[in-house]
Amino acid sequence: MNLVAKTYAGLEDLLVAELEALGAKDIVKIRRGVTFTGDTKLLYKCNYLLRCATRVLINMKVSEIADEQALYDTVYKIPWEEYFTVKESFSVDAVVVSDVFTHSQYVALKTKDAIVDRFRRKYHKRPNVQRIEPDVKINIYIFQNTLTISLDSSGESLHRRNYKIHQVTAPLSEVLAAAMLQLAGYTGEQDLLDPMCGSGTLGTEAFMLKRNIPAAYFRTHFCFKQWIHYRPEIWEQVVEEAQQEILEPNGGVIICRDKQLSSIRKTEQNFEPFEEFGGLDQVITKRKDFLRTEADQPYLIIINPPYDDKIEVDDILGFYQEIGTRLKHKYVGSTAWMLSSHFDALKFVGLATSQRIELFNGALPVKYMKYELYQGSKKEDKPTNEL
């Protein structure tokens, strides 16, 4: 099968590495995704194991089309009845970047018409179109005159790991959190500190990474399970093999702190599903204001501070300057990474950066900055333009 794993912009290289480890072939990096080839077992493994993918698609058809009738005819000719029946519901997602096709909702409607007409002509019945939680999801992408038709094997985005009990305002995506950990070089051996943990996404993803728990361990629904060709015996084999690779507790501790008691409570509750694995004594949660703390040893620190958008800060520039001062004077010997979309505030951290990575947090462009906290690394409380 010709497959596509989708991800966020900036995470393509991480996804390539994950796919190589799973044995994917013909890997090609594209913007916000990776194309590759593989069999049914690999398709299931990608959905169950990939930490940096948001969904996995099967490319069914790539064709040049000149107009709406060509779109309809191309979709109509695909043998949809080989993938699902009239008993299943379906939906169509369309993304259009074209001078000819200018309305994505109209493209989705024409696609639905073609699929429904094929079923009605063949069986005198039609499957229902259902926008919320459909059994089958079809992806249409038109770039200029090139049409790509794909079948979405994942359904709901793979960032929804299904272990979270509570959220906070502006939660971090699980996919982005997993990527941040890997970009920071986290292996599970280091003592990790998240001093502004919110609902604990960095901590829970670190625990999964540290123990090699499958990314989709807590998920039960995938669209491929509704397909006619679903192979439950292969799925069960994938799950069994992956669970045998889960590691015993070892390595460093995971420390989640926040100045809000409500955030600590939510973090603790979000760790509750992981009790079956044991080792939660290596997770330390505590209410603490980072700006009033100091390190008793070197840490790998990952900070996702407020950006002053959904969570407002009275003096955002001064706040970031205080973070830099605290890191410089109280966390010498540690390595810190910070994610933010407030680029002006990042200049006031005042620390020399050893690495800068451009990413996206949802639709927000963000920078992921690395600071080596050596003695004397901070410029004397002056803004820096190292962005």
How does this structure look, described?
This protein has 387 residues and is of the alpha/beta class. Helix 2 packs across helix 7 (232-244) and helix 3 packs across helix 4 (104-123). The protein contains 10 helices and 14 strands. The chain has 2 domains: 2-152, VC0802-like (2-Layer Sandwich), CATH 3.30.2130.30; 174-212 and 220-372, Vaccinia Virus protein VP39 (Rossmann fold). It has helices at 12-22, 40-49, 68-77, 104-123, 174-183, 201-211, 232-244, 261-271, 316-330, 343-347, and strands spanning 2-6, 25-30, 33-37, 55-64, 90-97, 136-143, 146-152, 192-194, 254-258, 283-287, 300-303, 335-340, 355-361, 364-372. The strands form 2 sheets. It has a 7-stranded mixed sheet with strand order 2-3-1-4-7-6-5. A 7-stranded mixed sheet has the order 10-9-8-11-12-14-13, covered by helices on one side.
SSE order, one letter for each helix or strand? EHEEHEHEHEEHEHHEHEEHEHEE
Work out the number of β strands.
Answer: 14
Biggest sheet strand line-up = 2-3-1-4-7-6-5
- Stretches where pLDDT is under 50 for at least 5 consecutive residues are 377-383
Query: What fraction of the residues are assigned to beta strands by DSSP?
Result: 15-25%
Could you provide a short overview of the structure?
This protein is an alpha/beta fold and 387 residues long.
List keywords for this structure.
387 residues, alpha/beta, VC0802-like, Rossmann fold, 7-stranded mixed β-sheet, 10 helices, 14 strands, globular
SSE topology:
Layout: E1 2-6, H1 12-22, E2 25-30, E3 33-37, H2 40-49, E4 55-64, H3 68-77, E5 90-97, H4 104-123, E6 136-143, E7 146-152, H5 174-183, E8 192-194, H6 201-211, H7 232-244, E9 254-258, H8 261-271, E10 283-287, E11 300-303, H9 316-330, E12 335-340, H10 343-347, E13 355-361, E14 364-372
Parallel strand pairs: 5-6, 8-9, 8-11, 9-10, 11-12
Antiparallel strand pairs: 1-3, 1-4, 2-3, 4-7, 6-7, 12-14, 13-14
